[in-house]
Amino acid sequence: MRKFGMFRVNFNKLAHLGQIPGLDKASW
């Protein structure tokens, strides 16, 4: 759970920076 939490935070940061295509426009 702890690793998943860290992954989620990093994933959100990448999405916020626009590193992940499509996620920015999805805005979920």
UniProtKB/TrEMBL annotation:
Record keywords, A-Z: Ribonucleoprotein, Ribosomal protein, RNA-binding, rRNA-binding
GO BP annotations, alphabetical order: translation
Keyword Amino-acid biosynthesis: no
Pfam short name (any one): Ribosomal_S14
Molecular-function GO terms, alphabetical: rRNA binding; structural constituent of ribosome
GO CC annotations on file: ribonucleoprotein complex; ribosome
Top-level taxonomic group: Bacteria
Protein name (Swiss-Prot/TrEMBL): Ribosomal protein S14
Organism expressing this protein natively: Ruoffia halotolerans
Species lineage: Bacteria, Bacillati, Bacillota, Bacilli, Lactobacillales
